[in-house]
Amino acid sequence: MSERSVPDPASPGLAVVIAARDEEWLIGATVRAAAALPGAAVVLVVDDGSRDDTAAVAGAAGALVLRHGANRGKGAAMETGAEGVRLLEDAAPRSAPRHLLFLDADLGESAAGAAPLAEPVCSGAADMTIALLPPTRLRLGGHGYVGAFARDGIRRATGWEPEQPLSGQRCLTRAAFESVRPLAAGFGAETGMTVDVLRMGFTVVEVDVPLEHRPTGTDLRGQLHRARQFAAIARALAERELRPALARRGRRLRQDVRAAASATAATARRASRRRLMGR
Length: 279
Ligand SMILES: O=c1ccn([C@@H]2O[C@H](COP(=O)(O)OP(=O)(O)O[C@H]3O[C@H](CO)[C@@H](O)[C@H](O)[C@H]3O)[C@@H](O)[C@H]2O)c(=O)[nH]1
Ligand SMILES: O=C(O)[C@H](O)COP(=O)(O)O
Known about the structure:
- There is one protein chain.
- This protein has about 280 residues and is an alpha/beta fold.
- The chain has a single domain (about 15-240), classed as Spore Coat Polysaccharide Biosynthesis Protein SpsA, Chain A (Alpha-Beta Complex).
- The chain is about 50% helix and about 15% strand.
- The protein has nine helices and seven strands; from the N terminus they run βαβαβαβαβααβααβα.
- It has helices at about 25-35, 55-60, 75-90, 115-125, 135-140, 145-160, 175-180, 190-200, 220-279; strands at about 15-20, 40-50, 65-70, 100-105, 130, 170, 205-210.
- A seven-stranded mixed sheet has the order 3-2-1-4-6-5-7, sandwiched between helices.
- Helix 6 runs parallel beside helix 9 (about 220-279).
- The chain is elongated, with a radius of gyration of 24 Å.
- About 40% of the residues are buried.
- 3-phosphoglyceric acid (3PG) binds near residues 142, 143, 147, 166 and 216.
- Uridine-5'-diphosphate-glucose (UPG) binds near residues 104, 106 and 229.
């Protein structure tokens, strides 16, 4: 897709990135709605190893499409999308890099409601926004235990408690995005990103948006999906709680090595003095 002109030349504008796996039914409507968002200069779909016609449908709807030959998970798809945006900008340099607006592929026409998500980032009021979907549309499937787990982990790591921690509909500046790469793997990406963005001192706000996404069911497939989310979030949180401990351990190790090295040098100096005096 060719890049469309941004109405305000002084504004960085938006690059919409959509990770999609087996989304041929909704991706076309999502892409068309995303392309019509104010400031959306490019819509980039990352087909994450789909087994259906997601890539072709997205391309026909006007998106630029990048493909993973095999499924690599949501976090990797988001990173591929951001890398695609960077390559586009390298080819046509701009004064300000575009903000990234991440949307899921299953929003369909409701993606048209994502505009308020970008406003605080475009105005400089926030470095990252997270979408708050209407609760009636959100709560259709399970017991919300995956969300509760992520929420609790983010609060323990940062002191901030998001209402909808899993939400992948989010907008952030490139500076914020670049500072938190690499993202956590798979469905841990959002939880890890929120922790890292906050720890880097960036501002995060949740924004009400009238988006609708496909609810996760309560059948076996739905519960396995939740189990995968849970495992990825647990990993993202464990990595983040471990990092300061590892850094502390690393500092201690370096101190011990330095101390041992200077003790060895002192012993060698003493031995050499003794040898000289003995002569
Ligand atoms: O291996 C995968 C799996 C999914 N997706 C895409 O990721 C998005 C979210 O996946 P979905 O199956 O709809 O998961 P949900 O449980 O509905 O997702 C909720 O929870 C996820 C984190 O656990 C967030 O990424 C989503 O934004 C949030 O709506 C969709 O566009 C998928 O096509 C991929 O790109 N690769
Ligand atoms: O779709 C989602 O956001 C997750 O799979 C969690 O779903 P639940 O809140 O219905 O358990």
